[in-house]
Amino acid sequence: MLKYSKVFGLIAFVFLFAMCNQKSKNESKETILKGSLDITVDETVKPIIDDQVAVFEGTYYDAKITVKPKSEVELINDLLNQKAKVVVTARNLSAEELKRFEKSKISPRVTPFAIDAIALISNKSNNDTLIALKSVLDFMQGKKDTGIKGLVFDNPNSSTVRYMKDLAKVKDVPANGVFSFKTNDEVIKFVSENEGMIGVVGVNWLSQPSPNMVDFIKKINILGVKGFKDNEYHYPTQTELAEEKYPLARDLFIINCQGYTGLGMGFSSFIAGEIGQRIILKSSLMPVKTPGRKLQVRSEIIKDKE
Q1: Which Gene3D superfamilies does the entry mention (predicted)?
Q2: Structure confidence by residue, pLDDT tens digits, 154-177
């Protein structure tokens, strides 16, 4: 019996060694600038991540990143259940979520990389291009006489819905007057074809539309929003975001739970670095770090040749 026990123990040891060795080989194929990686991205900010991936892959030819857009609820669930290792979110992890990672002995690397804006849009035929945030929140709370016919969201589980519910301090949206689809493009299309509706979308979908959405965007207005800090109406521009005036601003994060030095770390560093922040700057979003500018100082003025 002892003999068989020793043989079984030897087999188990060899099996475990082979599995660990295989895992080590798989991870060794991936570096911060080489290998393949799936990134689960909050659907409301997908355009800017597509831009980042395109430049990253164009710079590092041995890297292949696949962007998987999902709603915020799906994204966080995948991250907590370790179905996703690297994600881009419109919020940081909560204390409760961090505790779950601690129990699994995982230390998420959280990197803020941009300031985003949630835009409110209306049909071009609407003469009023201004709206008070209080009216929107009152509508979310089910109050009447807000002057709002209906709100249109991309997805019941999206980060924009969660953001607006948090502001309105409600657990659920009203049963009447609130509509949801699956994507930001669908919201834009619906608002462009229906008067009186107010769409709630990530501003990146308006500043970097796909070719098939350009005509729809021409039929909508981006509304000026009056918050609670002053009586002015503000728009989701970089200037307003930088001056912290636009009332519907939010931070964006890339969260890496790979647990080793892999492509997730390389891509996070890229987004937060000089090139990545320049890409953010060229979009409608605000980078967390202002990229430097190189100035050439000359001792004399060189006259143009006649």
Answers
A1: Periplasmic binding protein-like II
A2: 989 999 999 999 999 999 988 889
